[in-house]
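Take a careful look at the sequence and tokenised backbone pasted below. I need to know what the token row says about the fold.
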Amino acid sequence: MNYSSRFFAEVLANPGLASPILFPETVFNAPSSHISSLLASPSLNNTLVSDAGGFITALDMAAQWLDDDLVTDCLIISAEEYDWLSAESLALVPGPKIASEGAAALWLRRTEKPSPNDILLEQITEAATITNQQSRSTAIQKMHLDLVAPNHAALISAESGHPTWDRPHSETFASWVGPRFTLQSQFGHGFSILGGWQCALACELLQRGVCHDAVVAADTGANQAQGAWFTRPSH
């Protein structure tokens, strides 16, 4: 984000003097390619530009690569870099919001015989897009209907603590009996990284034995609502 802002500012000021060194850093896949280089990985590399649901979409893509035997392991990384322009957009969201940045990562691999210490990605719902024809509330309801996880699972919600913003989630998951967790009150509004944080928390809860199943309901009201179900192996 910062490299793109610098480059396009130089282009606007004087195209003839805009630094070509900055141009490659404006490509969306540049950060991911740099990480692949650091890991000396010649494997597939792709970048999705999305909101919080994008991390779950990336998990879905990784699972498809694994099923198709294109890769044996896949590292899914999400990052958000603070920028004044995106921070200003929070004025459009009800309630007080603090913009934040950060990163999250999960390592996905295939296993025919999961061990008791493994965490399984049991389900990913279809991405329910938010458009002029489909409201955010409807998208969240579709995500909920797609989920087949037990309703006693831990729910990692996208709620922020503001009633107006949270109403679609609180109404949709009103009958959920499992424990609920939220992140925005402690971590701030992380834009696209929120979905990554939610998934990391789900795995952490499972690893610590807090629950046997954990559900992520990812949504920032921008592009889509999408859910994921993580669980521990049954023995």
Summary: The first helix runs from residue 2 to 13. The two ends are 46 Å apart (CA to CA).
